[in-house]
Every structure is written in structure tokens, then in C-alpha cells.
């Protein structure tokens, strides 16, 4: 019973920490973009504008819970919940410190892949239920994009799995005691990062919501907290991909002197900032160019990586 | 017309080409105008023959097409009797000549043959004349209201149409009228020349705008899509129409200047220039060298400001988030200078008939020198950030292409036309305001695609900086306003010395100047292309007709040509690369 209570407590603590850090990330991103773009960003509410997060949340909560009359109501409401919950669930397998993944599944990596595939449904359903042409175009683009990038994301990860000999994220970290996988699995790392950006649809892979073409893409019709959930889901995705980068290629919690959880945090933070910097720097390719890049360039590379890894190990 | 060559850098000797055209249209009658453009009247039945002959004589472009309500005009010496006249202004780029053709129409029979088959851009112009004057064009593929809503009653540029809402009963929207207006807004693909389905697919219709983040104002494109591929893109304009030409008929010559600022609202005082040049031509004012140089300097500063906005928003529209902030920050510096000199920022309304409003303030050299020393390094940085970016190149190279010949046939001008390889720049070809004294290059590219249009503008910023530097180094001394009785407001220093100047000052400041009757059109190389004001004075304190020929109007008309068969994302890049503002289209 006590054990059960501990798990519940841990789950709640993790949930709180994640949602809070996703919210904080919105502030951090805006401040960083401001810094890189010669402007201020939100700096008025609270110290350094930190309470902007609270203000934004209150604003979103205060909005009318509006469902367009032409929308498919149940699906419309379900979609943002899926977006947020799949991302949160995927965190269950992330080992933040030795012995602290919420669930130490021996198929942890597969669980993550399954969850990220489920997240596509959020976008598809959201776009479909909105009954809006921009949303439909956005969700179609998104489905195609995520499905194709998932293929070689999985293939890229297989190299890591082969080398670690396990699907369990904890064991993958342990397998990096001698050498972080970012060196032997360099190609896989690059591929995974690119696919990760596409999965979380951030610039330059933000075609599903491409503001300048599709107004807001699949979430054009969303407002209030339902929009907020998509929004938080996106930032959770950024954190998720960053923590997976840390876990799979940069030795997870491993590191000298500092406590393991801090190492994990610092490494993850680094990749989160990289995401933001990418957004500040890059333009957006065209949809067909993105797909061609995925299938013609990244997929063969992922296969190559897998073959070479297998040969070396044999 | 496959290869278009631009003319040598001087205007051909003005021996008349009218004699040659007379064989095509024996009923041709000449008219003298203040601007010296060859002008002739032609009977309606010989119009198409004449225009066809002119086209064969290398008048490649239909520069402008408009009309005049002649019914209350008093000074019409040597002109045929007419209630309305329709004016066609043609431009030959290869011969560097203009030709203005007028047709007289009587009120009971306001029809003309359409010339859409001769010049494709006549389409929108003819719609505009129908919309604003109620003159019909036989054989036009789809004559409709283009600037005003389809439910509008009357034709506003007619002299008997009211100009102010206070001249009619207050507007009210009752239920029946609301229904009528709503009904008129309904989208029916057939009205736009679109099919609902083809043999193998049903098309999707996407309404891009008038509120959309990438259409730069209130502009709408109706899209017929097959998947994400564009089958047809039909632009819909008029949401920004403010009746600028009608206002010109109610404002004194002087007090109309602030309205011109708001036509191309990124161009600032550059808009004043063609207007005051045209008025000065009518009035016969010689502008002193210092005023000319100040005008050139301010215009070029605004060209830089406008191109910076273009550069930033272009990058933004292809999905690059940051550059626009840097470019707006630079533009803000520029506005600091503009504010110090003129007191205004975006709309200084600072040029005057006969000169400029004030002399340059103390310390202007330092401000401008600092800016032109600062900007080049930034521009290099922007080039490496935007134009050298490979993703951006892949998005914009080979997209939205038109050739020089197509550009001329559709009335394109400015950086868009120069991106096709044609070095047509009025500053060089027909120098005004002393441009012949400056050393600068006319920037051209060869591809005529979105990328080249952006590249040409980026280079033009550097050329403008060169011109500004020359203004700075060689600013002539002297008056900033002409000592001419019609200069408005008149120079003040002699008003209390002699009675003539005092009277002139009093009259010009109370009624406004009385401009001698006549017609003059002046075009300048504005930020977005050729901007021309065609002014008709009937010898009063108000303009009889103010026609504003803007570059963006024909540019938007080219969107269907440029976007067929491409994707929605390409259309966004195309729209971004045109560089238009809606006020410059709808006026």
C-alpha cells in the first residue's frame, strides 16, 4: 500500500513539475527570442516577467469555452486532451536519475514511440473536427509529416538499441558509462534530432501550423484552455525530445561531481535552448521539400546507420 | 517581343509618331498638354485600330487607363465635345516614349470596345472605369465592380456623385438591406471563373483573406485547389478603397499633399513627389537645386525604409522569424532622422508645391552620415541571414516567374520588372528632380522569380545609400523653395517688404493657389514601381481630376499568371515578393 502511495506521489510530483516547466518554457522561449531579436520579450509581470506565465494562464482560463457550431463537438474537445496526455504519458519512462523513471519498462523506448504515434491523432482529430479548411490542410500535412518522420526515427533508434542491447532507457544510460552514444551513434543522433523537431512540429518543421500559410493550421478554431492544452502539449514535446536526446545519446544522468538529476536537467536544458535557437534562426521549407528530404535523404541514412551498427556489432 | 531591350538613356527626339499612327486612324486629332506627352483624340470606331498600330510600334505597355467626367469642365479648348473621355496612356520601354490616346463619349452611349486582348492588364483597368464612371466595355470577359462592393449604387467619380457621406441621408442597415449585402457576399465559384470539379477530382475552394497573416493588409485571393496545388488564384481587391482620387477633387492643390502620403504608406514623402512635380509642371515652377536635392535625399531614405520592410516581411513570410525585427529596428533609426528633419515619421507630407516645407535642421549631416555608415554592415549580415539561406533559396528560386515581355504586357514596373533583366528605371531613363547628377547603378537580375525580386531590392538599398551619400556631400546652398507666385506656402521673407508678395501670400494661404488650366502627368520611380499622378486643372483652386496610377495595382493582377500550378506555400512567397500595400492598390 505504501509503495502504491509512493508511486502516486511520484506521478503527481512529476506531473506538476512537467506542466510547470512547460509553462515556464513558454516564458523562457519568449525572453530568449527577444534577446536574439533585439527586443525585450515579456518583462513586466513579476521579476523578469516570470509571472507572465500565470497571467497567460489566467487569461486562457478566463476565455469563453467556445466550440464552433460547425465543429464535431466530442472529437473537438477530445483532441487537445490527447495532445497533452500522450506527451505526459511518454514521460513515464524517462529516467531522470538512477531508479527514477516512473515506470521502468523494459520496452521503454517502444512505449515512447507508441505515445508519439498516438499524438498524431490529436492533430488529425483536431483538424478534422474543426471543420475548417485551414485546419484540415494543417492536419493532413501534419499526419503525413509525422508518419514519415516516425519511420526513420524508429530506424535511427534501433542503432542505439542494438548497441545497448536493451529497449529499457535505464539500461541504455548504463550502457553509456564508457562512451556516450553521441560518438558511435553520431548519425543516429542527428537523425533523431531532426525527426524530433518534426515530431514536435517546431520551426523549421512547423508546417502543420505554418502561420503564414494556414493561419494557425490544425488549431485555427481553438481558443481558451483547449488551445492552451495544444500549446502546453507542444512545449512538453520539446522537453520530451530534449530529455530523450540526453538519455539516448548524452549519457542521461551520468556525469562527474554534480548529482545525477542535475546533470540530467542541465543536459536537457541545453537541447531545449537549441530548439529555441533553431526557431529564431531558420526559415520554413515547403511541404513537398520536407517530405522529399525525409524519404530521399534521411531514410537511406537511417538504414545505412542501422546496417553499419549491425555489422560492427557482429 | 521575346527579347525586350531597354532604350538608350535619353528621350528620343520628339518628332511626332502621330503621323505614322494616322494611317491606322484617320480621325486622329492632336492635343497639346503641359507635360509634353503626345496626346491625341480618336473616334471610338478607330480606337482599336489605333491602339493595335501603336502596339506594333513598340508601345509594349498599357501604362494607365482611366476616364474623365468632362461635363462641368470649362477649359476644353481644341478638344472634341465630350461628356466623358476615356484616356489610354501607353509606354514604349524600347523607345522611351509615351502616347496618350483619348476617346470622347457622350452621355447617352457610354460604351467602348474592350482592349483586354491587346494588353491583358486592361482587364482590371476597364473594370475600374466601369466601377467609378459607369462606362461599359464591350467584349470584356467579366466586367464587374472591382473597387466598390457589388451592391453600390452610382459611379463615384462622376461629378454628380456625392463625395461626402454628409451630403446624403445617414446610412442605415435594415434587415432587408443586410440580407441583400449578405447575399452579395456569398461565394459562388462560377462567378470567379472556377469549376467545382474536373474529371478526376472535386476542387476545394480556399478563401485566403481579406484577413490572413500573409496578405499584407486587406487583400483576398480566392483559391481553387486540387489538394494543395493551385488550379486558379483569383485576387479580389477593393477592401482598402478610400476614394483618394475623389478626395483630390475636393481638396485645394496644397491641402491634398497629406493624402498622397497615404497611398503607398511605406513610401512616405516619395508619394508627394510625383504629385508636386505634376502641379509644378502645370504651374510652370522651377524648383531650386537645394530643394531638388533635399527631395531626392528624403525619397531615397524612404526607399530604404520601404525596402527594409519588404526584406523583413519577405523573410517572415517564408517562415523566417527573426530578420523582420532587425529590419524594423533599422527602419526605426531611419524614422528618427525623418522625424528630426520633417517632424513626422511615416506620413510627413513634407514636400510642397515649389519646394519642401522647411530647410534642413542643424546637425542633419551628422545624423545621416551615422546612418549611412552604419547600415552597410547590417545589410551584409542580412544577406547572409536571408538571401544566402539555402532553405529560402529553395523556397523562392524559380517560383512566380515572369519574363520581361510578360511583365511589360501586364504593366509591371519597379524592382519586379528589373528582376527580369530589364534595366527600366525612371530615375535613369527620365531623370526628374536632378537624378541625372547622381552616380548609381540600376540593379537588375535575370531570373524574374521571387528570389530575384528580393535580391534586386536588397541591392537597391545599397544604391540608395550611395545616392544619399552624394546628397550629403554635395548639398547645394540656396533656397529650399522656389520664388514663384504659386509656391505654397510662399516664402515668407519678402511678404512684409512689398505689397505684391503680401497679396500673393494672403491669397495662396486662404484660398490656396490657383493653378492654370491644363493637363500634366508625371511618373516617378517609387518604392514599388512607377507611380504617376495625372492632374487636370480647370483653372481653379481645386483639381478637376486627380488620377493616381500606382504600381501595385497591375502587380496584383499578375498573381494568377504567377501562381498557376504551384502550391499554397508558393503563393505566399509570391505575394511576399511582389511588395505591395493595399492602399497603393485600392487608393
TrEMBL record, chain A:
The chain crosses the membrane at residues 74-97, 109-130, 151-173, 179-198, 235-255, 261-281, 293-313. It is a multi-pass membrane protein. It is found in: Cell membrane; Membrane. GO terms for cellular component: plasma membrane. It is an enzyme of class 7 (translocase). One of its GO terms (molecular function) is NADH dehydrogenase activity. Its EC number is 7.1.1.-. Its main location: membrane. GO terms for biological process: aerobic respiration. It catalyses: a quinone + NADH + 5 H(+)(in) = a quinol + NAD(+) + 4 H(+)(out). The keyword Cell membrane applies. It comes from the Bacteria. Keywords: Cell membrane, Membrane, NAD, Quinone, Translocase, Transmembrane, Transmembrane helix, Ubiquinone. HAMAP family: NDH1_NuoH. NDH-1 is composed of 14 different subunits. Subunits NuoA, H, J, K, L, M, N constitute the membrane sector of the complex. NDH-1 shuttles electrons from NADH, via FMN and iron-sulfur (Fe-S) centers, to quinones in the respiratory chain. The immediate electron acceptor for the enzyme in this species is believed to be ubiquinone. Couples the redox reaction to proton translocation (for every two electrons transferred, four hydrogen ions are translocated across the cytoplasmic membrane), and thus conserves the redox energy in a proton gradient. This subunit may bind ubiquinone. Belongs to the complex I subunit 1 family. This is NADH-quinone oxidoreductase subunit H. It comes from Marinobacterium nitratireducens.
